Amino acid sequence: MQFDFPLRKIIHVDMDAFYASVEQKDNPELKGKPIAVGGGSKRGVVSAASYEARKYGVRSAMSGYLAQKNCPELIFVKPRFDRYKEISQQIRQVFFEYTDLVEPLSLDEAYLDVTQNKKGNPSATLIAQEIRQKILDKTGLTASAGISINKFIAKIASDYNKPNGQKTVNPEEVLEFLSALDIRKFYGVGKVTAEKMYQLGIFTGADLKKKSLEFLNQEFGKSGQHYYNVVRGIHLSTVKPSRTPKSVGAERTFSENLSSEIFMLERLENIAQELEKRLKKSKLAGKTVTLKIKYSDFTLQTRSKTLPFFIADKSLILDNAKELLYQSPLENSVRLLGISLANLNTETKNKIEDKSITYQLKFDL
After folding, report:
1. Looking at 109, 219, 261, 276, which residue is catalytic?
2. Is the peptide bond between 79 and the residue preceding it cis, with omega within 30 degrees of 0?
3. How is the chain split into domains, by residue range?
4. Does 100 count as an annotated binding residue?
5. What is the pLDDT of residues 177-236, one digit of tens each?
6. pLDDT exceeds 80 at position 5
7. Element containing residue 339 per DSSP (H, E)
8. Strand partners, 182
9. What CATH number labels 247-346?
10. Is 14 among the annotated ligand-binding positions?
11. Which residue windows are coiled coil (predicted)?
12. CATH second-level architecture of 18-79?
């Protein structure tokens, strides 16, 4: 078997029920109990659920009402993001002991390229084991890991032996692994695309691989090439240590629906103030202002405008958000407002050069 593309040693580390695990660690009384971080209010949404709660079908992004219905014994815990960030930094310090090629995806997961690593260890599998043990020793929390030749396969593999486990997909196992994979696991295949693939008789990676590039281009347009490549183990995205944000935003969900623009102005001012704080912390500014409006019937509307100059000041953000609010009549009462800035000044900053190296096929992960 030959791969005509750079072959790397990639680890995807994913903390196990991170927010919930932190709460259980800091409060021993919560250990072994079904808990949900967030979701406690009438309009609340679950940010994370412990494994004890997941047994009842409680999941992140689920409404607190439904979570409580699924698990009457569920304990809601208020999120403490400063604490999660503190522990996340401890975890990343462990990552950097092995490589500088670390791409955080969130506070609780990251990609690591250990093809060439600081320990001189040729085995990515052993490195992953060491990292998971060090995280446990340092934080008292468990992590799972996936190891393979690219980011896509490593991420899929990290979910296989959760919690507190890992899975390696070696180069010679890649095609067999992908062939057996449910089509919904493939990157870029959402609910709508999956339904279309089902109609075309595509249920697994093996089914997808049987389809020609011409067929996939015809059915899925520009995405056809991606589906054709990824099922053959071709995913060339490198681990990017500097993840440049494309937008920065802030939003608020209200305890009661708002029916008049006048009642929304004070809320918009608070949101603009929070956005200014985030922009200044990251030393960012943007040209495109977007107002996000979620109505009481959960329909979503966005209104945007692009300025000829960068802004980061609360007053300018608020002025433009107000203009967008009054741009057209509201369609219903409003349960959420948000403001974001895109078209950021990050485009003018230097980007880290991708120093990819091509390796021979036969090496042990």
Report:
1. 109
2. no
3. 10-16+82-173, 18-79, 181-230, 247-346
4. no
5. 999 999 999 988 988 999 999 999 999 999 999 999 999 999 999 999 999 999 999 888
6. no
7. strand 334-344
8. 204
9. 3.30.1490.100
10. yes
11. 258-285
12. 3-Layer(aba) Sandwich (3.40)
